Amino acid sequence: MVSSVLQDLSAKKKIWVVVPSVSFAGIIIGFLFNENPVLGYLGVAGCIISSFILGGMAFVNEKKDIVALLAPLYAIIIFNPWSEYNTGYVMQILFSLTILVVTARFVLRFYSE
């Protein structure tokens, strides 16, 4: 079952790979440069940027997906610096995994060629 899903995803355009790549790359770079106050927030920035990429993919598609369209709003709510959520590495990884699942769902159900 997993191999059929991966084959179906590989048959689609490769743009969907950008979303989890940006998110996880931001987390890794932010973890490596944790002492630098600016570069330490690259994990949060990667999650927000990847959610906007997913929202853009959903917006330009002819079949609209409300979950993918609202991903940037969720990212802004979760990673708002004045919110009560902890934006540490656990939250960033969980958000990136969620973005990965939403992206796979969007590509499998709504992506038109």
Shape: globular
**Quaternary structure annotation:** single chain
**Rounded average pLDDT:** 84
Which parts are unreliable, with pLDDT below 50 for 5 consecutive residues or more?
Answer: none
Major sheet summary line = none
* DSSP strand tally: 0
Rg is 15 Å
Number of helices: 6
User: Roughly how many Å apart are the termini?
Assistant: 23 Å
SS class: mainly alpha
Instruction: Please estimate the helix content.
Output: 55-70%
Order of helices and strands: HHHHHH
Beta-strand content: under 5%
Our count of domains comes out at 1
Keywords, separated by commas or semicolons:
113 residues; globular; membrane; transmembrane helix
Describe the structure.
The protein is mostly helical and 113 residues long. The chain has six helices and no strands. The radius of gyration is 15 Å and the shape is globular. The mean pLDDT is 84. The chain crosses the membrane at residues 15-33, 39-59, 89-108.
Outline the secondary-structure elements:
Blueprint: H1 2-11, H2 18-32, H3 42-60, H4 66-69, H5 71-78, H6 89-110
At a glance:
The protein is mainly α.
